[in-house]
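During the second half of the funding period, the structural biology subgroup turned its attention to how the target accommodates small molecules. The most pressing case was acetamide, which had performed well in the primary screen but for which no bound structure existed. We therefore specified the complex as follows and requested a full 3D prediction, including the ligand pose.
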Amino acid sequence: MVRPVLGAALVLTALPTARAAAPAFMPLPVKIEVRTGSLPIDSSFTIGTSGCADPRVSAAAGRITQRILRQTGLPLMGGTVVKLAVECAARGNDYPALGEDESYTLDVAPDRAVLRAPAGVGALRGLETFVQAIVPGAAGFEVPAMRIEDRPRFPWRGLMIDSSRHWMPVELIERNLDAMAAVKLNVLHWHLSDDQGFRVESKRFPRLAELGSDGFYYTQDQLREVVEYARQRGIRVIPEFDIPGHTQSWFPGYPELASTPAQYTIGRTWGIYYPVMDPTREETYTFLDGFLSEMAALFPDPYFHIGGDEVNPKEWNESARITAFIKDHNLAGPEGLQAYFNQRVSKILDKNRKIMVGWDEVLHPDLPQATVIQSWRGNAALADAARKGHRGLLSWGYYLDHLRPASYHYSVDPLGGPAAQLSAADAARILGGEACMWAEYVNAETVESRIWPRMAVIAERFWSPQETVDVASMYDRMAVVSRTLEWTGVRHRANYGPMLDRLTGGRPAEPLRVLAAASEAQGLGPRARAGKYTSLVPLNRFVDAARPESETVRALELAAARFVKNPVAGEDAAFLREQFTQWAANDARFQPLAENNAFLAELKPLSNDLSLLGRAGLRLLAAIEGKQKLPADFLDRHKKEMTRLARPQAEVILAAFRPVKVLLDAAE
Ligand code: ACM
């Protein structure tokens, strides 16, 4: 059962909506031809490899077999007949390289599947497609017969994780690497230092971690372990040490690096700090030479990120010594000084055979052309860098910490907006993109629920053909992939229930769950405006448990939209009525739970509003069904309520207002 949905690049696309058990691929492969029959997956399932001299492929086959076991509950016995044959034409690189051939084909027939790849890394990608293709069938688990041809659109498909602002343990990084591999991402950009934490052991400069990390840092052995873990999965690791701004955590151990002599402590607040490195002292470069050379040896990737964003020039402008240096060296103000600094750092990286990567702000006419520009400011900034001959990455539009809906991220294209006007030669410099998980408002307990499943949607944007833009198909597949991703080990769904239970002190949390399913957590902006956070404030409230996007509310919005077009007493009306009835009754159950509970007290108005929405929804449903006119004062009053409810309360949005608003607009 198939229906053609996408652009000319695709032949046919199987969708989960077309048949209950059709595979939900994410990223969507370039080309899928569905054939008849299916390959049964049973206890005799075995993967065989041939020509794959790359030991990563057999290791991945072992892991995939374990994953199939988790996914199907089958006691895999290791049969003697190969059911999935993996054939590599060549070994490929040992360490994943930018632009290497990641393509593969997968032919699934009723007796056997064959995965062919030019190199080991393509086999790794194809194995993930195979495991996504396993579905429950009438006779047990199976893979529908089909032929897939697949290759990535962009060679650089990344996730940036900020381990500085909140500590992210090694095992968390590793399980996220498994999830990244599952959606064919190939770069972990690891933000390892910032004002609030220096997270890496340096043997040359031990006070960096000793005094800059509260004891939470990665040892060099752990760094090597993560790099190897990523390599096994065909993922490159790019470290970022953000300089010369965002550097306060360097200064408790080495205050001489700072522009203003002082005694420094680790930053505890969020934002752009005044303290920045001193680019005028030769000793700064001696230090950076030692430190960056030490780090360069730990990270085999040829690319190395030096940050360079949000440098506050205040201390440079206020220092007579630094302003004199700027004048003596004919530099164009603080920007010129940062460009001078970047050139010096670039020479250090050159010596270590590393290519520099930096955020938008490093772009300057004097910057070596090889420097890769990562744009957090937008497609226009990225296009500008490409026109100036720099290769670039898009991160604007992929800020996971803003907690925007998946559809928003899906709509952003590395070659969209002004970048669509680039010549073919300039456009070819855009290597892809990276999603960013900044960690002001996440910790090890919550970060995965803010990365996944939306990261999978961005991974599709980076991998699949540009014409892959069907939002309904994306949401259908994301819902499935969100659940299957947990089988890779990532814990983005695992903490939700326990965090809600914690808010009630262990009392039955059902009314709180109803409220949480109707709410959406707010991101960086609204949380910053709440004005109460530092790195020492626990992230243990309702907003931290609530999801960025409510699946329940989305389903209700779709049902409401269908219902107003065809207002009959069908499935949609029944679904809406059931939910509205639950909401209407929920506040009476919630309020006793909230007595003498500081965590729940802030939610009392929210809960009251949910019941208001439930009652309004029921009245609207009945009126639209019965073709009755509602009194003008009811409509006026609720229109005002919708405006009010669109604003955050307790740092969440009561998303439940949206389906009710669909009915209200129709009733008007
Ligand atoms: C950034 O968001 N300052 C890179």
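Two results from this model are relevant to the next phase. Confidence is low (pLDDT under 50) at residues 1-20. Residues 309-310, 359, 376 surround acetamide (CB under 6 Å).
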